[in-house]
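Worked example 3. Consider a protein that binds flavin mononucleotide.
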Amino acid sequence: MGIYEILENRRSVRKYKPDKVSDQVLEKLLDAARVAPSWKNQQCWRFIVVREPERKKQLADSMPDNNPAKRAVGETAPIVLVLCADPEASGKQDGKDYYLLDAGLALQQLMLAAHAEGLGTCWVAWFNEEKVRSTCAVPNNYRVVALTPLGVPQKQPSARPRKDLEEIAYTEQWGNAVK
Ligand SMILES: Cc1cc2nc3c(=O)[nH]c(=O)nc-3n(C[C@H](O)[C@H](O)[C@H](O)COP(=O)(O)O)c2cc1C
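Given these inputs, the predicted complex is written out as structure tokens:
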């Protein structure tokens, strides 16, 4: 799969087959995150790999019942990754906290690599942070940025709509059509 195909076809996957993810592939995916760019190359992110069924259930308990990824985290995905980041190990500019961007880039790289390996993921940011912190013993100086289930998709979900290019890109100055 070429890069554009990977970008085009990645979906948030919320239904998984029970198939295992090999340690070798998991390591490749974590490595894809490891090489992501970051503020002053501080690499403020940390990943926790959760496989124990009881711990996955506790992670799901941190999510509201109407979070559509709850079953994927608690039951169906063989792995859940917990993304943490240390705000002090990244930069802040004009009130913008770059640790969220650093961590987001790392996880997105992992997600794209996962898709290239035929695996599914789903960004999950709607959860109770303190519950996740105690479930995974995350130190207090780290924020829990996101979770993702990881596994073999049951099927390829359909594409969600996106804005047209004219709505999101301008030429030279705000509002000038790009094409
Ligand atoms: C920062 C962020 C947080 C998200 N949190 C959740 C979540 O808690 N639960 C969920 O089911 N999906 C969550 N999503 C997934 C989005 O709903 C999804 O990316 C969007 O609908 C587009 O669909 P697609 O990823 O399949 O293209 C989140 C996505 C992002 C980027």
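Take a moment to read the result before moving on. The radius of gyration is 17 Å. Residues 11-12, 67-69, 122-126, 157, 160 surround flavin mononucleotide (CB under 6 Å).
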